[in-house]
Predict the structure.
Amino acid sequence: MLIDRFDRRVSYLRISVTDRCDLRCVYCMSEKMQFLPRAQLLSLEEIIQVASCFVALGVEKIRITGGEPLHRKNIIKVFDALGALDGLRDLTLTTNGTQLPRFAAALKAAGVTRVNISLDTLREDRYRALTRTGRIERVMQGLDAALDAGFERVKLNAVVLKHRNHDEVGDLVAFAIDRGVDISFIEEMPLGFVGDHDRAECFYSSDDIRRDLAQRYELVPTTESTGGPSRYFRIPGVATRVGFISPHSHNFCAQCNRVRLTSEGRLLLCLGQEHSVDLRHVVRAHPGDDAALQAAIVDSMAIKPKGHDFDLQAQPVIFRHMNHTGG
Ligand code: SAM
Ligand code: SF4
């Protein structure tokens, strides 16, 4: 049976549904990013087919990401189809938040449980500088819409760069507490050339952030997990959890239970390595044949590596940008 051969380590699939975005964050894209021609992207139907095959094999959690997932035309169709799959326990979304006023209610109705919203700063001028084009009030309206829609959990994600926003970590936690949401701080990963800053100079580690936060908050370590690489801390007396995603300082491969599907249908077995399997080829060579697709998925698990190593001093060894892989 195929299902018996499926790697039981893997319970979590992240799907990048587009490489396009309305923003151009300095750590994610270069200023003149070239996007893929549409024919190279998986169609919405192909995304649904691949996701359904993973769920049939035992994957219980799917996160939809991008690029900006809510920027993809008719994307609600994917959420509706996945939300109806038997066996899927958790359907989640990572978004920059700008389109949430339009889509939050439909996402909730489709069965989305948790939403992560990227917000690196509370200052209008910095938000514009970090995203190159964005307006912070759009994200704030998106956050309000997510809270109104009543998702099980809303979390802010902040990538922290030295001298860009590292002095705001305490204010971001205060904001999260005030809005009753969780927050995770992310170390920048060296994916693709971004041409904006020297990644080694801007590196600010999770340990640095924790030291800064300790001036203002008592952080109590927990063993809580949402199935991802975040390590969570609690602040006594408040509901907000503070997470740290530390691909450099705490290489998280040992607990990694996830695989990623890129917007062009490559299955990546590790964010920090190039190993991948071309599932788009399988889908298009065997239209509608779930058995062929499931067999390809099961076989690809054999190359899931045990570790990765990012080197900030070297040129990127991973040439994919984050908008292709989806974080
Ligand atoms: N557009 C959506 C967003 O920004 O939330 C979803 C896609 S984005 C690629 C997913 C996550 O990756 C975001 O939280 C973003 O901050 C993070 N990210 C992007 N580039 C990164 C990098 N080089 N290192 C670490 N995190 C990065
Ligand atoms: Fe767009 Fe998200 Fe990348 Fe920012 S991090 S450019 S919002 S895909």
